[in-house]
Amino acid sequence: MPFLSDTPLDLAGLIAEVTAPDRGGIAAFVGTVRDHHGGRPVAELEYSAYGAMAEAECGRIVEETERRWPVRVALRHRIGLLAIGEAAVAIAVAGAHRDEAFAACRHVIEELKRRVPIWKRERYADGTVEWVGTGQAPGLTAPGGRP
Amino acid sequence: MPFLSDTPLDLAGLIAEVTAPDRGGIAAFVGTVRDHHGGRPVAELEYSAYGAMAEAECGRIVEETERRWPVRVALRHRIGLLAIGEAAVAIAVAGAHRDEAFAACRHVIEELKRRVPIWKRERYADGTVEWVGTGQAPGLTAPGGRP
Amino acid sequence: MVTTASTTVHILLFASYAERLGLERIDAALRPGATVADALAYLRALPGGAELPARPLCARNLAHVGADAALADGDELAVLPPLAGG
Amino acid sequence: MVTTASTTVHILLFASYAERLGLERIDAALRPGATVADALAYLRALPGGAELPARPLCARNLAHVGADAALADGDELAVLPPLAGG
Questions:
Q1: Between A31, A35, A102, which is nearest B106 by CB?
Q2: How far away is chain C from the Cα of A25, in angstroms, using its nearest Cα?
Q3: Is the minimum CB–CB distance between B122 and chain D shorter than 8 Å?
Q4: Complex ipTM over 0.85
Q5: pTM for the predicted model, two decimal places
Q6: Which one of 2.40.70.10, 3.30.70.60, 3.40.449.10, 3.10.20.30 gives the CATH number of domain D7-80?
């Protein structure tokens, strides 16, 4: 399971994976667990996934991105219980030029949010628990289409 | 001299500087020393700076960026002798939303390249040494204007 | 030639959908030529199934598909609540 | 009232420009009311100064300025080769 991780994410390791002497520009993105959601204080958060598909979909996103831009991509998403401030997702993209690295990094996080089957359940300070959806799903019917 | 560093850059440290519970999206950029320039193999590279102005200009870029977007910015540029693959510049930008983090991170690297007085001298595999310019200078006459 | 064999589809439910229907997996025997929409109709007839949205996100054999996609015997069909990765 | 005092400007040169003129710093006594362009003309008259470009990047007291910016006594004027940070 190379894309999903149940241990803390290591951005420096991802950067090392993609960097090379001819790829001098590295763009990265890290998404961390926020302390509020919809005005309510979040105590902790659990990510779960449809593991086999999440791995396949992440693999497709990386492959499509590396075909579209001359870059190398490394990507990890955390699953399980996370504390506030911990990284949920980390992406590193290296290319010869920063234009490509930034564009490809942005593409990877957008596609991940749109396509990879991962869910989160937040526990709030008042003890209530809730599945959190980004509202991406209903319109998305094929990997190539926009909702 | 907070923005210039003569020791290896620490992206994780920069990310820690800007991350907060209400700033969950972190965009980062790292520029490393490439092994080729204009088709010639580069052996090593030395960055020098007009130190006082580089510090002032980096400070102005950070301040302008944090005023334009609701983000926090951390920025370091290496000076001195660097080996191939070492990071020359590292930027971390954290915001509540990734749109802002990406836009602000991109802005910082563009402005740094355009405005901060740093120079590099490359030593090539054949022993020759050359000052490398990005051709930014002649048209730039004021901090707000584009070349 | 008329085939009388049914098409067995392994349906997976996740997260809030698994909670609403109280199950994570069910094998459905559908008519040959059935589509994703037929499998969803099958789910809607189960207890709690009426709570599924009109057009939930679906994946067949680990890839996103639309409601009109055909299902073959042995296919895995996952019904996915709104995604929340990243 | 006519002032006869001159305007002393501390000129700094860097990188390739410092190499071309063989100096990193020179104090220039310019006429009162002198501009950056006047300081550049002063530099061009020095050995190697003709190699400076027509409109080099300049900074006065740590901030970028154009060639028509005025210089005051004690100002620091830096003449900057093409930047190569990042």
A1: A102
A2: 23
A3: no
A4: yes
A5: 0.91
A6: 3.10.20.30
